[in-house]
């Protein structure tokens, strides 16, 4: 495993559900329509009906997305989840109770036969993966002809007073780097041109902007930022000190009327195997 993979596996083993804790109740909007969460948005890519349908959740985490699909009790719907964090998969197994087939593996070498799935979903994971060209080649391989990928990825956050408070508090933190050599590979996902280059082997690529807005108060801001990787690298005392300073700064913003909301941006990427 690379430094990045070891960091992600270790972090998610120690903090299973950290992503769904922040996002499972985050209402979002896309193309004028409202969705209860980013998970509900992706679940909407899976059609209803009795026809046989095999769905893979790539980097399924604690099973938040799979649980929405399993709750349909949809005849013919077969659910699969893959992740390389044992901690996340254990949480998914508890949540799903056998309603999905869970596998521990890397996305760069999927343990499935060619043309195994009608749909592949992925929530906030592809932009964290190294060798993403290989990952996308694997998705093409395991999709049936005409099969669809629907993925939610991060997008650059618009400037906001709350975001600047987080950046300033992080810069002034005395926490040391606990993962030397750690680099996140998301640069290619920052603009639509980069995304289009990555997905050149697929047909019918569509990139949709997904937006959310959180109120500016210490509790809500901490619920969002408290699970970011930079803070999960800190020791508990360091993280507690950061939280106190961050909450106080956000409270000051709110009291002075300098920030009304925290805007968040994502992208939904969909494409089809030709």
TrEMBL record:
Family annotation (Pfam families): Methyltransf_11 (PF08241)
InterPro entries linked to this entry: Methyltransf_11, SAM-dependent_MTases_sf
A molecular function (GO) term: S-adenosylmethionine-dependent methyltransferase activity
Residue intervals of the Methyltransferase type domain: 56-150
A GO biological-process term: methylation
Keywords: Methyltransferase, Transferase
Enzyme superclass (EC): transferase
E.C. code: 2.1.1.-
PANTHER family: 2-METHOXY-6-POLYPRENYL-1,4-BENZOQUINOL METHYLASE, MITOCHONDRIAL (PTHR43591:SF24), METHYLTRANSFERASE (PTHR43591)
Name this polypeptide is given: Putative methyltransferase
Taxonomic lineage from the root: Bacteria, Pseudomonadati, Pseudomonadota, Betaproteobacteria, Burkholderiales
């Amino acid at each position: 495993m690379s430094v990045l993979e070891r960091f992600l596996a270790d972090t998610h083993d120690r903090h299973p559900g950290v992503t769904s804790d922040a996002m499972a109740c985050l209402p979002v909007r896309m193309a004028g329509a409202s969705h209860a969460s980013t998970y509900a948005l992706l679940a909407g890519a899976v059609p209803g009906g009795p026809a046989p349908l095999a769905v893979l959740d790539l980097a399924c985490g604690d099973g938040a997305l799979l649980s929405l699909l399993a709750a349909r009790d949809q005849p013919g719907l077969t659910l699969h989840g893959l992740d390389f964090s044992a901690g996340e998969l254990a949480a998914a197994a508890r949540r799903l109770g056998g309603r999905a087939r869970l596998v521990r593996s890397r996305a760069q070498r999927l343990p499935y036969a060619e043309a195994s799935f009608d749909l592949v979903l992925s929530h906030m994971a592809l932009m964290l993966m190294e060798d993403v060209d290989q990952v996308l080649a694997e998705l093409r391989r395991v999709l049936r002809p005409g099969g669809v990928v629907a993925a939610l990825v991060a997008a650059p956050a618009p400037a906001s007073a709350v975001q600047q408070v987080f950046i300033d508090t992080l810069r002034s933190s005395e926490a040391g780097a606990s993962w030397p050599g750690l680099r996140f590979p998301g640069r290619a996902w920052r603009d639509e041109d980069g995304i289009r280059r990555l997905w050149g082997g697929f047909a019918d690529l569509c990139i949709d902007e997904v937006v959310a807005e959180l109120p500016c108060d210490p509790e809500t801001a901490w619920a969002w930022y408290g699970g970011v990787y930079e803070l999960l690298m800190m020791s508990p005392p360091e993280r507690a000190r950061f939280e106190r300073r961050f909450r106080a700064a956000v409270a000051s913003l709110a009291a002075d009327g300098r920030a009304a909301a925290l805007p968040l941006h994502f992208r939904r990427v969909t494409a089809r195997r030709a």
